Amino acid sequence: MLDFFFMGYLVTKEDFPRVEAEWAELLRSASNDTIFLTPWWQKVWWQHFHGDRELLLLTVHHGSQLVGLAPMKREGDEISLLGDSEVCDFMDFIASHGEEKPALGAVMDFLETMEWQKMSLSALRPDSLALNYFVPLAQARGYRVEISPMDVSPHVSLPQSWEDYLLQLRGKDRHELRRKMRRLSQVGTPQCYGVEDGKGLAQDLADFFHLFEQSERDKRAFMTPQMADFFKGMMQALAEKGFLRIFFLEIGGTRVAAVISFDYGNEVYIYNSGYDPSLASLSPGLLLKVFCLQQAILSGRKCFHFLRGREAYKYDLGGQDMPIYRCLISRA
């Protein structure tokens, strides 16, 4: 553990066990709270992907209160946010509301004592603390800053009822969705349901991986043994906290589509999915996501995140783009 004081703020280089409880509490007071910034998500990512990198888990205290946290890592002369954009859709610093500028200023002061040449900040939402607080601090200190578009993350602001949601859709999309729902209802005995208590997780994960790898060739290449181990660890950790939701569509008693989602902070995140391609004409993957939307509305959730990527179905279901940025900060 390494401590530095900057203008009344204490910056400490920490590790996961000592900071996990405070980290979770800090997120609840932050404006940018997402599932990808939780200590459970980031701890599992580090366990599976850290390689030879150095952990830079920087906490910022003002008095006895944790007011900021910079989850970072260093590899050679480059510093970056903890995680990677392949599996972490949103990344950022964390600070309690009202403490963003001094907390991140203290982080910058700390980092200036270290040896590095560039800082890579990826998967930043428009409301990220990195873009709105850290970048202006870096520019004011003479660092070179390059910001560029990285991706988009479609989402839907959820109304109070399913009928109101349907009215949000374009007419042709609403008509097509109803047609697909009718067609599925006429085949076999379709049943959609969610699993959220973590019981039977091993079998649920096995069924998900089977459907995921069937869906597309790119998905089979993505799901390496290392990635599969990360998925298992991440889902186990989030199931224990009550945030994991796995949804299945069965036809004739056989699971033909699966969706991994997270119910966190009054918002739902659709993380990954798979389906039996031999039933593609019935749109099982799409219609299971529609069921997830219905459940989110019934549960009173406020936002439904399709997460990063421009897949057409996201817009057919009313998705509106949120831009995602990357930022490179270079030292003179």
Features:
332 residues, single chain, 9-stranded mixed sheet, elongated, 30% strand, alpha+beta, 6-stranded mixed sheet
Reported for the largest beta sheet, the result is:
9 strands, mixed
Runs with pLDDT <50, length 5+?
none
- The beta-strand count equals 15
What's the shape?
elongated
Specify the structural class: alpha+beta
Q: What is the CA-CA span between the terminal residues? A: 29 Å
Helix share, percent: 25-40%
The share of residues in extended strands comes to: 25-35%
- Radius of gyration, whole Å: 21 Å
Q: Secondary-structure element order, as H and E?
A: EEHHEEEEHEHEEHHEHHHEEEHEHE
Structure description:
By secondary structure, the chain is of the alpha+beta class. 39% of the residues lie in helices and 30% in strands. It has eleven helices and 15 strands. The chain has helices at 16-28, 39-49, 100-111, 129-140, 162-168, 171-185, 201-215, 217-222, 225-241, 284-298, 312-316; strands at residues 2-6, 9-14, 54-62, 65-75, 78-81, 94-95, 118-124, 144-152, 155-157, 191-195, 244-251, 254-264, 267-275, 303-305, 323-330. The strands form two sheets. Strands 1, 2, 3, 4, 5, 6, 7, 8 and 15 form a nine-stranded mixed β-sheet that branches. Strands 9-14-13-12-11-10 form a six-stranded mixed β-sheet. A hairpin with a 2-residue loop joins strand 1 (2-6) and strand 2 (9-14). Helix 2 (39-49) packs antiparallel against helix 9 (225-241) and helix 3 crosses helix 4. It is elongated, with a radius of gyration of 21 Å. The two termini are 29 Å apart.
